[in-house]
Amino acid sequence: MDEARRRGGCGRRIATVFLVALAWLCLGSTAVAETLHPIGSFKRPIFVTSDPGDQERLLVVEREGRVVETGPGGTRTYADLSSLVTCCESERGLLSIAPAPDFHSSGRFYAAYTGKAAAGGLEGDVHVDSFRPDPQTAGQLIREPILSVAHSQEANHNGGQLQFGPDGHLYVSLGDGGGGGDPFENGQDLEELLAKILRIDPRPGQSPAYAIPAGNPFAAGPGRDEIWAYGLRNPWRFSFDYLNGDMVIADVGQDAREEVDFAPAVGGALSGAGADYGWSCREGFIAYTSPAANCAGKSGFVDPVFDYPHEDPGGGAAYGCSIIGGYVVRDQSVPDLYGRYVYADYCTGQLRSLVLPSTSSGTATDDRVAGLHVSKPTSFGEDSCGRVYVA
Questions:
Q1: pTM over 0.85
Q2: C-alpha dihedral over 381, 345, 15, 46, to 10 degrees?
């Protein structure tokens, strides 16, 4: 974490924020509750992040393949990857980006997307690539492929979150390959990268294009070296707690439950290496009704810390169809949400928050509505000051 963030040196351009695709969610000094505050219009916004070295420079990912920069200097297209990105059948498109730690000086960012044939492989394969400005040609990017995963058979369950962890490594989420009920049985298959969280050390321009960090749980075999955790259906969004490095994964469910998985940092180090979150043997806290054949005899699953049903249970409890994972709020100008994990559901549009437990074997508490609604939320994001946004 950089020194300015540790000291709380981020500026007060606005009273602090959640970006709600077209808006920021903020609590002003005289306000009594969070409100929505628009920042601009974007086409199919799918993710929000920022320059790690410039809190004013937001990067909004548009699903069709563009990265839009917005800030005090106005709004412009920072990168256009649409010639590589296949969109928008089912859940395909540009899925997220992760600016490199030195982005402010290098302009390098990593992108996860479903590719056209022009990207290499088959249409729909998931690609993680590095992009940087071409020093010889203004406005052009140099693409340096990092990782590709076959995903051409079904257009859904791509995952696609990229995030640099507190350990400096790049984490990648991948869905189970699509269809319904894990037809490819990837959830429990450690020889496949789908249905996993990966952890790699990207080395763009080198061969190989990434290294395996020390401590990856399957590096000594059996299983793929890149895997950090598994048993996930569609971990569309995950995040790290800005303050302490805890990892929170929102895994989109099948027919019954949506879930939140949790790997707290212990002694400053991330836990959760080798965790099996249960798909497709389990869905949330319950046994899945049609488990894959490779679930036979399996045990030792890490239960979620929270799940909610698709049917409305009444009483103001959470329900919906597709969880949109957010962040633990560490912005002190939003005191009612400080320290709480904020999330939403695509179908209900409710923004909610809960208190995470201290261990992965605990359960979340005090789940409640935030009193705000966003039509069809697609993603949360966080800027370099820890302000939280939702598209």
A1: yes
A2: 30
Do residues 158 and 151 touch, judged by C-beta distance below 8 A? yes
Secondary structure of 148-214 as H, E, C letters: EECCCCCCCCCCCCEEECCCCCEEEEECCCCCCCCCCCCCCCCCCCCCEEEEEEECCCCCCCEECCC
Please state, in angstroms and as integers, the Cα–Cα distance from residue 53 to each residue in 100, 134, 153, 383, following that order.
Answer: 10, 21, 40, 10
Q: Quick check: bond before 222 cis, omega within 30? A: yes
**Residues near 50 by beta carbon (within 8 Å), at least 6 away in sequence:** 57, 58, 59, 99, 382, 383, 384
Torsion of CA 235, 52, 42, 74, to 10 degrees: 180
Averaged pLDDT, groups of 10, the chain, 391 residues long: 36 35 36 68 93 92 96 93 98 98 96 98 98 94 98 98 97 98 98 98 98 97 96 98 96 97 93 98 97 96 98 98 96 88 96 96 96 91 89 90
Residue with tokens 């492929």: 145
